[in-house]
Amino acid sequence: MAEPAVKLARAELHELKRDFSGELSGGKVVKVQFNPESLKVSFANQLVQPEGGGDQRGTPARQFVGAGTTKLALTLWFDVTALPTDQKSIKDVRKLTQEVAYFITPKSEKGGKGPEKFIPPAVRFLWGSFQFDGMLDSLEESLEFARDDECVEVTPEIVRIRKVNLDQNERARATSRLKRQDANA
Questions:
Q1: pLDDT at position 56, please?
Q2: Residue 80 burial by CB count (10 A; 0-12/13-18/19+): exposed, middle or buried?
Q3: 74 pairs with which residues across the strands?
Q4: What angle (nearest 5°) sits at the alpha carbon of residue 172, between those of residues 168 and 175?
Q5: pLDDT at position 112, please?
Q6: Alpha carbons 144 and 149: distance in angstroms, whole number
Q7: Which residue numbers in the chain have pLDDT < 70?
Q8: Are 28 and 15 in contact (CB under 8 A)?
Q9: Contacts of 156 (CB under 8 A, 6+ apart)
Q10: In this predicted structure, what is the pLDDT of residue 5?
Q11: What is the biggest distance separating any 2 CA atoms in the chain, rounded to whole angstroms?
């Protein structure tokens, strides 16, 4: 008997309440354009070596002193040439990345005593059965158009990127020349 088909879901970012108790009603939800190739989850504990006392030989004792940290690292790709039909009017990829940048932009925290605080919103990353709640601590945006050895050809029917030099041997020689120039620079 054939196994049932698995439905692939696009990853999503959901804005959470400040105390991480659940999703914020009316909060921002962003569906990523392409799922990440991989996720990296890192765990760390806060440990210290106690001062004085104890045997000085062998491995020093360590003491757990506080909550650890957990970090999620991933790469998301966005491409204006591969948009769903409801987003075809978008011509600048930064319009897509701004949706994710929302989650690193500090917001005013109203109420409480003392000066006004600005903190980024809490966010939940969902992808299939994987869920990670946290705050963005860094965001890197890289814009790529075409490599140095490529050109963009545009016709009424198609847009394509191709190698400037179509001869493979000449491309290899040009690459070698560039490496020598870089080494001498």
A1: 61
A2: middle
A3: 39
A4: 135
A5: 66
A6: 13
A7: 1-2, 5-7, 52-60, 84, 111-112, 145-148, 185
A8: yes
A9: none
A10: 66
A11: 80
∠ CA 17-20-21, nearest 5°, is 85
The two tokens of residue 72 are 């999620």
Q: What is the 3-state secondary structure (H, E, C) of the chain?
A: CCCCCCCCCCCEEEEECCCCCCECCCCCEEECCCCCCCEEEEEEEEEECCCCCCCCCCCCCCEEEEEEEEEEEECCCCCHHHCCHHHCCCCCHHHHHHHHHHHHCCEEECCCCCCCEEECCCEEEEECCEEEEECCCCCCCCCCCCCCCEEEEECCCCEEEEECCCCHHHHHHHHHHHHHHHHHC
The CA angle 77-135-9, to the nearest 5 degrees, is 45
d(CA 87, CA 76): 18
Query: What is the pTM for the complete model shown?
Result: 0.65
89, amino acid identity? S
CA 44 centroid distance within chain = 20
Per-residue model confidence (pLDDT) at position 135: 93
Structure confidence at residue 57 (pLDDT):
66
- Distant-in-sequence, close-in-space partners of 122: CB < 8 Å, separation ≥ 6: 15, 16, 17, 18, 20, 133, 134, 135
